Amino acid sequence: MAKTSEMVVRTLVECGVTRGFTLPGLGVTWALPAFHDAKDDFDVVLCRNEWIASIMAQATGRLTGKPAALMGQGPWITTMGGLGIIEAHFAGSPMVILTETSDYDGYGQMGCYQTMTGDYGGADAMASLKPITKYCTYATAPEEAVFGTQMAVKHATLPRQGPAAVIMKTPIIRQEMPDTPKPALYPSEGYLRHVPPKPDPAAVAQIADLIEGAKSPVIVAGNGVLSSGAGQALQDLAEAAGIMVVTSYNGKGVIPEDAPVCAGMLGTWGHKAANRVLAAADLVVMMGASMGPDYTRFRDPDLIRPGDQTLVQIDIDPRNAGWVYPVDLAVTGDVADVVAMLSQRGLSSEKTGARIEAGMALKKKHGYDLLPDLPAAQGTVHHTDVVRSLQGFLGADDLLTLDAGAQRIWATFGLRMPHGGQLLVPGGTGVMGWGGPAATAAKMVHPEKRVTCLAGDGGFMMTVQVLPTAVQRELDVVYLVSNNSGLGMVRDNLGDKRIAVDFNEVDFAKVAEGMGAKGLSVYHPDEIRDALDQAHDMGGPVVVDVKIDPEASHHEAVDNAPI
Does pLDDT of 267 surpass 90? Predict the structure, then answer.
């Protein structure tokens, strides 16, 4: 008879989940023989901690639209592993979490250390995971583990996507499945069938009429455009009708940011041109964008004006339309379907030239194509030098991941992504340490791409243990570390009351070499581009330690001026 672990692995493969990330402990250790037997169908990626495993699983789900598995022992998946889970929850990334209660053959009621059953003297895995997942179940029998896995995949993949967890009572993992399971188990396919609803044609026709009648229509493109793969179709539509496009943080780069119709990313850490293009709109069409306060300058009353501007919101989840702002029209559906229906209907090009001309004038007025040339101390560079070098480096086959911190602010403000869909960001929570594991996962998903991570020294140090995984997997990833020996963003905000923000200097090139990777160091602006080229030519994981002037501030990249 098959064991629970074997049946769960079979179910994952049957459901199309073929890769998992883990640092195994207790129950997952017990399940490793089942994963070994299925290694031709399921790829187990060994990580150095649960934090890294969770980010790699989340990034894989975000890139593929299909869940990867995060697997580990209950106490650590619910704590360290929670970072990637909560990012998946906020960002709408599919993920399946497999964990257990660590109750050591039934001793959970006796306060056994690590126990997660929720009993006296222990902790509660269900209570920890339920608030940050779409679906969470506690399996106490083999049949429940299999059915729970089927339901987890179902919930993770249905709109709006997200993380789903199966917590198994540890002793059942090695338990044999009865010959006649009760309740009966069925193949997974029937549980996963789903025909997505199509947008209402009358509502889409109404959007078309509003666009035709508007003087200055603007599309706000969010994560929903990326996840639906509608970037190119959206660009074609916008260019044909002369509709300016601005983006959320998650949607940055969904269409090439050097396109005439693109005004870049919104928000305090976006570009002032994007904010002013949106403020000048008489019609705002929000596509797969939640309109979260973080990219609307915290509901700046001059940016979005219900009652003055006509507001239309399109989202796959009807709860998201009219969530942050009251809207004049809400359309439920996949953004790709709405864009296709608008394109098939055909929009007039009569106003195209005038609309684009007006948008370009606002972009020029507010310096959309300008990046300040700011000084740095001898032997160091400024964040703007890094952005400028990346701008000239990125080609059609590049993927770039960002981390949190000052270097990310300069990238979101100053970097114009030259090709659609080549930027990956920690958009759900903005957690530090995300960029390195995300880049590593991205290379596994897209081995044909040239993958670069831009991270600060603070964030990169948090998950630097991803390097051995990249070495073991022989992954050609370049980690560009903006090293200012501190928490640059916090340091800037403290002014002359600097405390708890300055780190000792770390040589990341030597750290990389000690972990089996390769390392380069950069001390001058002219060296950055050459180092990027050299690092990617070297093969294998390479860390480029770029010495950033500790006094280089992010404040010049912030738009907090009145609209």
Answer: yes
The reported pTM is 0.97
User: Are the C-beta atoms of residues 335 and 230 closer than 8 Å to each other?
Assistant: yes
CA 475/CA 61 separation, integer angstroms: 19
Residue 428 has pLDDT above 90, yes or no: no
Residue range 230-236: mean pLDDT, rounded? 98
Residue type, 344: Q
Q: What whole-number percentage of the chain has pLDDT above 70?
A: 100
Separation between Cα atoms, residue 296 and residue 273, nearest integer Å:
13
475, pLDDT greater than 90: yes
pLDDT at 104: 85
Distance from the first to the final alpha carbon of the chain: 69
pLDDT of amino acid 1: 83
DSSP per-residue letters across 262-327: EEEE-STTS-HHHHHHHHT-SEEEEES----GGGTTTT-TTTS-BTTBEEEEEESSTTTTTSSS--
Across residues 472-476, what is the average pLDDT? Answer: 98
35-69 tens-digit pLDDT: 999 999 999 999 999 999 999 999 999 999 999 99
The strand order across the sheet containing 310-315 reads 262-265, 244-247, 217-221, 283-287, 310-315, 329-332
Q: Say which DSSP state 18 is in.
A: -
Q: Are 65 and 161 in contact, with CB atoms under 8 Å apart?
A: yes
The Cα–Cα gap between 501 and 494 comes to 9
Question: Residue 317 and residue 286: Cα distance in Å, rounded?
Answer: 13
Helices marked H in 473-507:
488-494
Q: How far apart are CA 375 and CA 84, in angstroms?
A: 37
Cβ atoms of residues 90 and 292 within 8 Å:
no
Asked whether 228 and 250 are in contact (CB, 8 A), the reply is no
Strand partners, 19: 43
Q: Is the pLDDT of residue 106 over 90?
A: no
Q: E-strand spans in 341-456?
A: 398-402, 423-424, 450-456
- Give the DSSP H or E segment for 165: strand 163-168
Closest alpha carbon to 541 in 482, 481, 469, 483: 469
